[in-house]
Amino acid sequence: MSLLILMRHGQSVWNAANLFTGWVNVPLSTKGIDEAVEGGRQIAHLAIDEVHTSTLIRAQMTAMLALSQHNGGKTPVIQTPQMVEQTSESGELVLVDWSKTNGPLEQILPVYMASELNERMYGDLQGLNKQETRDKFGDEQVKIWRRSYDVPPPNGESLELTAQRTLPYFSSAILPSLDAGKNIFVAAHGNSLRSVIMDIEGLSREEVLSLEVPTGTPIIYQRIGEEWTRLHEY
């Protein structure tokens, strides 16, 4: 048995300003910080063996703020080697990982960053005010861009395209750890998590359109063998 804990990042400063964000790398708002901390309190008692997050700061902030409330006593360490060129004893130039630790590995909680978990890329809409965009293009067109399964905004990604990068990463980097009995915490985004939930729960293209993923709120699944169970409390 293993647990998968999904959490959408807390409110960002552009969420608060009602702007399309996508891959624009903006931080959490004050409200978003509070949401991430509260979400962390809700999972503080659950064992976590591994963390995955996107390359966007709002998801990374959410992960770290949530983990700051955790009872496990481990230190989250981002697994990004810091390679520096050095001269070896033989005079050769070699790359050395300056971030390598020689301390007790059992005290470390590995955190992996992956662009595959990033939010939908909103293309030409990124940075635009959502209401002004509705006024210009009409409510129905903006709803299609935002909520349809396979219609992307101009020069952006649809949910279908988002799933085409998110789900292979989920299968190759997260599922093996779950199958090994590890509990995994994923801090990501509304649309990348919608694609994962769609896959786990076997939702149709029509059903996923009404799926809402709240900010800063843990969604917990139990995995036994190939079977998933969504837990309302744990």
Description:
By secondary structure, the protein is α/β, with parallel strands linked by helices. It has one domain (2-85, 105-231): Phosphoglycerate mutase-like (Rossmann fold), CATH 3.40.50. It has helices at 13-16, 30-42, 57-67, 130-137, 139-147, 159-179, 190-201, 205-208; strands spanning 2-8, 50-53, 75-78, 83-87, 93-97, 108-113, 184-188, 219-224, 227-231. Strands 3-6-2-7-1-8-9 form a 7-stranded mixed sheet, sandwiched between helices. Strands 4-5 form a two-stranded antiparallel ribbon. The mean pLDDT is 95.
Beta percentage is: 15-25%
CATH hierarchy class name: Alpha Beta
CATH structural fold name? Rossmann fold
Helix content: 25-40%
Please state the overall shape, judged from the principal axes of the Cα atoms: globular
How many strand elements?
9
Radius of gyration: 19 Å
Pattern of helices and strands: EHHEHEEEEHHHEHHEE
What is the spatial order of strands in the main beta sheet? 3-6-2-7-1-8-9
Describe the sheet with the most strands: 7 strands, mixed
Detail the poorly predicted runs. none
CATH architecture descriptor = 3-Layer(aba) Sandwich
Number of helices: 8
Give me the CATH superfamily.
Answer: Phosphoglycerate mutase-like
> What's the number of structural domains?
1
Overall pLDDT level: 95
Distance between the termini: 14 Å
